[in-house]
Amino acid sequence: MRIDLHTHSTASDGTDSPAELVRNAAAAGLDVVALTDHDTTRGHAEAIAALRELSTGLTLVTGAELSCRIDGVSMHMLAYLFDPAEPELLAERELVRDDRVPRAKAMIAKLNGLGVPVTWEQVARIAGDGSVGRPHIATALVELGVVPTVSDAFTADWLADGARAHVGKHETDPFEAIRLVKAAGGVTVFAHPGAAKRGHTVPESSIAELAAAGLDGIEIDHMDHDAATRDRLRGLAADVGLLTTGSSDYHGSRKTCVLGEYTTDPEVYGEITRRATGAFPVPGAGGHRA
Ligand code: AMP
Ligand code: FE
Ligand code: FE
Ligand code: ZN
């Protein structure tokens, strides 16, 4: 079984539509794929519809990646199989997502101040109806020839945390996120907790506190973690009783990773599905293996 529990579509900052993502996941030979767009479930319906057209046994796990902040450090919380209609979590997702628009406009204003002629119209065209984020602005910077690739925009010169053109956004307290996701029947996994190249990371003591507050797992096998980081995180997970996952964090052509680049153990996947009560994995039309 090949299980990839973290991907993005055009509903946020990926470049595959939700339907393309599902088809590409099947073509990549995955058995299970989770759709985890930033702060939105908007892609779920299209992904489910596409899954029903497939002749393979791909199973879809619905989810989202929630933008959080703890002690001033931004972090991402994967949430799986929650009820997307649960009003409190829905309201929090909307709050974060809606704040992304004025925040993107503020970053564009800073870039204009730095002499970069990027416009909101350009960024809005790139983002389409997806939840707008820095990768869309980074794509605009690539179009304008300011940087060669999207990841080259995530530096102190441009869009990295605290960089010249960076502006923060509303982010949820992770203890609140855990509470909200649980109340909506979902399961939480702290995404790429050791991704140091993205900025400050959350200390192990805080991860232990999140575990005590009901965090279900941490993502370990991820492109942004080196071998030493994975070993350290595996030790922590064993100490504090967290599930451990792996994923591609696929963003289509906006990042270099490929679907199924890292995967999650079937037993861990089974435990996630047993804990979830807000939604169920959606089996593809071709019969289900998961
Ligand atoms: P935002 O949610 O708008 O603050 O943007 C965060 C997103 O930017 C992440 O989900 C990644 O997709 C992307 N990102 C963050 N750091 C980097 C990086 N160093 N290189 C490439 N993409 C990054
Ligand atoms: Fe992203
Ligand atoms: Fe993330
Ligand atoms: Zn992600």
Structure described in brief:
The chain is α/β, with parallel strands linked by helices and 290 residues long. The protein is built from nine helices and eight strands. Helix 2 links the parallel strand 2 and strand 3.
N- to C-terminal distance:
8 Å
CATH topology term of the largest domain: TIM Barrel
Put simply, the count of helices is 9
Order of helices and strands: EHEHEEHHHHEHEHEHE
CATH level-two architecture of the largest domain: Alpha-Beta Barrel
The small-molecule ligands in this entry are: adenosine monophosphate, fe (iii) ion, zinc ion
- For the secondary structure, the number of strands is 8
Helix share, percent: 25-40%
Fraction of residues in β-strands: 15-25%
* CATH homology group of the largest domain: Metal-dependent hydrolases
CATH class designation of the largest domain: Alpha Beta
Specify the structural class. Answer: alpha/beta
- Low-confidence region ranges: none
Mean pLDDT: 96
Q: What does the largest sheet look like?
A: 8 strands, mixed
Number of individual domains: 2
Q: Report the C-alpha radius of gyration, rounded.
A: 18 Å
The global form is: globular
